[in-house]
């Protein structure tokens, strides 16, 4: 992740307020819980295997749990810093709500990972009611947080049966084709434990299965795969190294450049110059 400048983050119970003051901020996210959020200012671009979802000022979105996203935050058209409020709906809370309200176990949810709820005036009013807590988070007691969380659940359920299926689908990721999954998701810079969960395995089983399939460790494979993708993007797509290193899952440019030179014998910048010379 790029370093943030004057970033303000307030976390109180399962509520989060974040405001970033730099022009762009790129990060990667794995959501183990459902997240309901509103963009207060600026813009956020979410990139996943489903495509791109853009949150602009006023956008309200529900993000399904157990999803991988690359996110790019940008200042708004007038330079206002990106800021948002998010509410995380954890499994323990939803299990308790389902039991208290006699909601039966739901079939697996097959809908979109991100649902646009911007037109819902009740959810807009809900987020408006949270704004005073941004400057006085201590006022958001555990009891109030619980009440507000239940309010959010009630409001979501008013939007139709699809939200019942989404919120109360308690199935965990099942054991999937590991080779296909990793080849689709190697660019995401998340812990191996998160890859393991999303692939329906314990960490030890994930490592064992991985070694059988790829004949190397996950760490070595991920780095080599990311470097090969970076080489392709620079050499064939003519992307700048400063764009590529985040795109393929490296955390900082210097580590990326060092690993790239060790593998290919020249730095990303040298490859760029070499390409220009060949074209010129």
UniProtKB/TrEMBL annotation:
Pfam families: ExsA_N (PF22200), HTH_18 (PF12833). Keywords: DNA-binding, Transcription, Transcription regulation. Residues 176-274 form the HTH araC/xylS-type domain. It comes from the Bacteria. The keyword Glycoprotein does not apply. Transmembrane segments: none annotated. SUPFAM superfamilies: Homeodomain-like. This is Helix-turn-helix transcriptional regulator.
């Amino acid at each position: 992740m790029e370093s943030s400048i004057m970033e303000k983050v307030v976390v109180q119970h399962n509520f989060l307020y974040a405001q970033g003051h730099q022009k762009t901020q790129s990060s990667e996210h794995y959501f183990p819980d459902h997240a309901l959020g509103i963009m207060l200012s600026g813009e956020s671009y979410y990139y996943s295997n489903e495509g791109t979802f853009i949150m602009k000022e006023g956008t309200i979105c529900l993000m399904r749990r157990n999803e991988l996203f690359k996110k790019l935050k940008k200042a708004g058209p007038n330079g206002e810093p990106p800021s948002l409020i998010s509410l995380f709906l954890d499994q323990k809370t939803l299990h308790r709500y389902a039991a208290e309200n006699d909601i039966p176990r739901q079939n697996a949810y097959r809908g979109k990972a991100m649902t646009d709820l911007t037109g819902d005036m009740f959810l807009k009013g809900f987020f408006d009611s949270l704004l005073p807590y941004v400057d006085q988070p201590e006022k958001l007691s555990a009891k109030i947080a619980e009440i507000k969380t239940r309010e959010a659940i009630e409001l979501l359920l008013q939007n139709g049966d699809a939200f019942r299926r989404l919120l109360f689908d308690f199935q965990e990721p099942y054991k999937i084709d590991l080779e296909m999954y990793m080849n689709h998701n190697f660019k995401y810079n998340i812990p191996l434990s998160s890859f393991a969960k999303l692939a329906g395995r314990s960490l030890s089983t994930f490592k064992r299965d991985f070694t059988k399939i790829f004949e190397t460790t996950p760490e070595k494979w991920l780095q080599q795969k990311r470097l090969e993708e970076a080489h392709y993007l620079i050499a064939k797509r003519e992307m700048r190294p400063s764009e590529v290193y985040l795109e393929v899952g490296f955390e900082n440019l210097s580590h990326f450049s060092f690993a790239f030179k060790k593998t290919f014998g020249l730095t990303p910048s040298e490859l760029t110059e070499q390409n220009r010379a060949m074209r010129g």
